[in-house]
């Protein structure tokens, strides 16, 4: 018997979330899972780097400022692997655009729909 399920925008997609605020991270995880994604979570750059190497990783959502510094090293590794990423940050766009021209920045707080739409567009690029 086949189950009819509505199409989820991130169905089957593996997303890395790098966020050091536990409450914000849980909210994003719930949002992404509700959209069908499998979410890998890291609370700092050191924990994120091994996850960047996963062969099934489709995209990443990164906070700029992390407990162990910032997400620059994670961005560099993602770029080397041609894995798209966006920033979900409280920092203004110029802080990010100076370091990562052309990067998508979703400003905290944003609605779940804005985050899902931005991620979907990023993956389809």
Distance between the termini: 35 Å
**From the helix content, strand content and strand pairing, which structural class follows?**
alpha/beta
Order of helices and strands: EHEHEEEHEHEH
The tally of domains stands at 1
Instruction: Identify the CATH architecture.
Output: 3-Layer(aba) Sandwich
Tell me the Rg in angstroms: 14 Å
Which CATH class? Answer: Alpha Beta
Q: And the CATH topology?
A: Rossmann fold
Strand content: 15-25%
Q: How do the helices and strands line up, and which of them pair or pack?
A:
Elements: E1 14-18, H1 22-34, E2 38-42, H2 45-52, E3 57-62, E4 65-66, E5 69-70, H3 72-80, E6 85-89, H4 93-99, E7 104-107, H5 112-124
Parallel strand pairs: 1-2, 1-3, 3-6, 6-7
Antiparallel strand pairs: 4-5
Helix pairs in contact: 2-3
Detailed description of the structure:
This protein has 125 residues and is an alpha/beta fold. It has one domain (14-124): Response regulator (Rossmann fold), CATH 3.40.50.2300. 40% of the residues lie in helices and 23% in strands. It has five helices and seven strands, in the order βαβαβββαβαβα. Helix 4 (93-99) links the parallel strand 6 and strand 7. The termini are far apart.
Key terms for this structure?
five-stranded parallel β-sheet; single chain; globular; 125 residues; two-stranded antiparallel ribbon; 23% strand; Rossmann fold; alpha/beta
Summarize the structure.
With 125 residues, the chain is of the alpha/beta class. The chain has one domain (14-124): Response regulator (Rossmann fold). It has helices at residues 22-34, 45-52, 72-80, 93-99, 112-124; strands at 14-18, 38-42, 57-62, 65-66, 69-70, 85-89, 104-107.
């Amino acid at each position: 018997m086949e189950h009819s399920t509505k199409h989820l925008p991130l169905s089957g997609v593996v997303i890395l979330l790098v966020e050091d605020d536990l409450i914000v991270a849980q909210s994003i995880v719930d949002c992404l899972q509700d959209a069908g994604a499998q979410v890998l979570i890291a609370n700092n750059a050191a924990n994120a780097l091994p996850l960047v190497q996963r062969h099934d990783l489709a995209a990443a959502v990164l906070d700029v400022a992390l407990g162990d510094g910032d997400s620059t090293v994670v961005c560099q590794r993602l770029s080397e692997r041609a894995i798209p990423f966006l920033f979900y940050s409280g920092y203004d766009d110029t802080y990010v655009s100076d370091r990562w021209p052309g990067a998508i920045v979703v400003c905290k707080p944003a609605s779940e729909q804005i985050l899902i739409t931005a991620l979907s567009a990023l993956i389809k690029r």
